[in-house]
């Protein structure tokens, strides 16, 4: 190529970054047997038969001589849990493999654990590609887990979510203008929440407990020995308020007992209260598993991350029940 078209490099990078990819770590052994690896998102499939893949390596990468001479390399498609590893293998000058356990592969190229997929390759071709070298490899072996993959989009790590064909509508009717719509967070979150609570309500009825009592037992199961004010600080986000009378009613049911902490009355779970709460937790866990099975583990993970972001961006400053005790 003689004539170079001159683009604004940043604009060109940004446009390329709009192509969403997975993230891989590619490894090989250097001349002296040292483990080499880099983070790369230029990985792609080439051919099914024979099975071939490609990726490209910057000519200024320190690992270029090792990859150029190596007969074998392994591609690791990273899982959503391996973001830290991606960062580590994208930085120069670190002992990238420190503390990592390796699997045994077909060649001596390092084989990392706990990935979404792995491809063990033999170098088939190397091509010039401007400021990169393109490596094409023949796949000798591969494996694949159901771990959610790590994605990369517009220069940031991302998670995948499957998209149903067309728009998902809950009802057929078109909403009136100026009315609530089924696309509003309030409606969607509320409806999902109440639908999910259906089975729990049936259990609470059997246990002869109110929803209020459920919140009290749940909080005490996580942090036992709280005053009514402390209980309320953890429960207030639900809109429910715990009163002394409500605690006395739970005491009469044998679920909680009172104790003293200085001048304050604190409430502790009785054995019956703990057993009752554990029954509720078991149900909550099985509902959680049910939803995960229906959404698929990858979408379930993505959804939980988004929910946590939503909770954090709408948090008016509530105390953290799972955080250190103040
Ligand atoms: C998500 C991501 C994708 C990357 N993809 C590539 C790539 O495809 N090719 C490449 O040469 N460098 C890529 N890099 C940069 C290298 O990982 C980085 O330059 C690394 O430090 C090179 O290591 P080395 O110089 O020790 O060989 C990527 C970095 C990140 C964070």
Task: Write out key terms for the chains shown.
326 residues, alpha+beta, seven-stranded antiparallel β-sheet, three-stranded antiparallel β-sheet, elongated, binds flavin mononucleotide
Give an overview of the whole structure:
The chain has 326 residues and is α+β, with helices and mostly antiparallel strands. The chain is 36% helix and 25% strand. It has a seven-stranded antiparallel beta sheet. Strands 1-11-12 form a three-stranded antiparallel beta sheet. A hairpin with a 2-residue loop joins strand 9 (117-129) and strand 10 (132-144). Helix 4 (185-207) packs across helix 8 (271-295), helix 5 (211-222) packs across helix 8 (271-295) and helix 8 (271-295) packs across helix 9. The longest helix has 25 residues, at 271-295. The chain is elongated, with a radius of gyration of 28 Å. Bound molecules: flavin mononucleotide. Flavin mononucleotide (FMN) binds next to strand 3 and strand 5. Residues 23, 38-42, 55-58, 61-63, 90-92, 152 line the site of flavin mononucleotide.
